Amino acid sequence: MNRLFGAKTNTPKPDLNSAISNVDTRIESIDVKLSKLTAELQTYQQRLSRMRDGPGKNAIKQKAIKVLQQRKMYEGQKDQLQQQSWNMEQAGMMQDNLKNTMATVDAMKTTQKELKKQYGKVNIDKIEKMQDEMADLMDMGNDIQESISRSYDVPEDVDEAELDAELEALGDEVDFEGVGGLGEEMPAYLQESAGVPSFIDEAPEAGKAKEAAA
To answer: Does this UniProt record's set of keywords contain Coiled coil (predicted)?
Structure first.
């Protein structure tokens, strides 16, 4: 059976990159041949430029024509191979873009699944209840602060007339205390201008005053 249909080979199929590499290698070999043919044509051209017309020159021309035909054939093959390489490179770029697109789609699907899992664990009702409780606690705190900072037994109904009367009374008290304060600083009997106290009938004599002092 294997002789009739051939045996199956397990060799891996060439991928796109290897195919492009093979084509590029063939193009390089053709470039080498083209370089040789071009150099040969240049040699014939130099020989023909120095020869006179005749059978020998015609024979060189025939050889140059064959070399030129070979060079055109290789140039055609090179163009075909370059086009094939370019087509495969385009296919490779499309393949890479498709791989990148599929990787992006897979990443988005995975992210979507994770987001669904995370948001599925969130209870909106519990969050709203927590916000309401926080608002109630804030209001309670404000009430406590207001209650603590409240003043005790301070009349609030004081008008401008009562204020003016109070200020006027304070001004009178200040004036009265100023007048009385001068007398309290130094008693009258200690001042230099004070005379003999009123409870003494006569002033003492000078000699008796010295004896009393001694």
So the answer is: yes
**Residue range 167-185: mean pLDDT, rounded:** 61
Q: % helix / strand / coil in the chain, to the nearest 5? A: 80, 0, 20
- Distance (Å, rounded) from C-alpha 90 to C-alpha 86? 6
d(CA 104, CA 122) in angstroms, rounded, equals 27
pTM over 0.70: no
Long-range own/partner contacts, residues 23-26 (CB < 8 A, 24 or more apart):
23/81, 23/84, 23/85, 23/88, 24/85, 26/81
CA atoms within 13 A on the CB side of 65: 6
- DSSP secondary structure letter of residue 55: H
Task: Find out whether 38 and 75 touch, Cβ atoms under 8 Å.
Answer: no
Q: Are 20 and 83 in contact (CB under 8 A)?
A: no
Region 154-161: mean pLDDT is: 65
* Spatial contact of 34 and 74, defined as CB atoms under 8 Å apart: yes
Which residue is it, tokens 């087509």?
A: 87
207: alpha, beta or left? (left if phi > 0; alpha if psi -120 to 50): alpha
Residues 6+ apart with CB under 8 A from 45: 64
Token readout for 182 is 């001068």
> What is the rounded distance in angstroms from the CA atom of residue 60 to the CA atom of residue 66?
10
> Which one-letter amino acid corresponds to residue 20?
I
